[in-house]
Amino acid sequence: MLKNLNWAKQNLSKKFSDVSNWGTFPCVLKITSNRVLHKTDIGGVKIVYAKSDFEKAYNELIKVIKLKRLNDAKILIREYVDGKELILGIKKDEVFGHIVLLGMGGVLTELIDDVSIRKCPIEKEEVVKMIEELKFKKLLYGYRDKSRVNVNSVIDAVVKVSNLPKKYPKINELDINPFIVNSKEGKVCDARIVLN
To answer: CATH 3.30.1490.20 residue ranges in the chain?
Structure first.
């Protein structure tokens, strides 16, 4: 369903031997479970900077899985992507049908509540207007010593996401959080889909 988006390199595992040959560092380890919405709230995210720390971090997440009794859990290993964290999403509204959302992502999503919303589908020009409505837009265009991000990758991703309900009308919710964008590219780093 989300194949046409640029994804961070990743691998999913139930045991360390499945991923022991991972060679890209730094990387991010995350617990995935249908019972966990916010992974950071349970200590379910680790950034690993060197191969020598990889197995230790993996085993720490296994301990969390056992402690929380997350029988369905796996560990997602993905490349570390440096940049600004955004949220892209879709929600099926009873009045308007599918709407697309763009805003500040990561753990700041609920705290800052800086989003822009449109009815699906939308074109590039409308995404530019959405970006202009965001309070944190200066962070995307470059602020002080921070470089400009690849805004075109954000625009392309939002347009693609806004067109998904045409092909998949049963989407009730889609959260891409974070979509991490830097001066080079934007990548989907985590996503959650709820179907009718």
So the answer is: 10-79
Q: Where are the alpha helices (DSSP H) in the chain?
A: 54-67, 109-112, 124-133, 137-141, 151-167
> 165 Cβ partners below 8 Å, 6+ apart?
90, 92, 97, 98, 120, 121, 171
Give the model confidence (pLDDT) of 26-56 as tens digits. 999 999 988 887 788 899 999 999 999 999 9
pLDDT of 15 reads 83
| Contact present, 114 and 105 (Cβ < 8 Å) | no
Residues of the chain below pLDDT 50: none
Question: Where do the CATH 3.30.470.20 domains begin and end in the chain?
Answer: 84-195
Which pLDDT score is estimated for 139? 87
CATH superfamily of 10-79: ATP-grasp fold, A domain (3.30.1490.20)
Which amino acid belongs to residue 47?
A: I
pLDDT of residue 60: 95
Distance CA 118, CA 90 (A): 10
Task: Say which CATH topology domain 84-195 has.
Answer: D-amino Acid Aminotransferase; Chain A, domain 1 (3.30.470)
Indicate whether this model's pTM tops 0.90: no
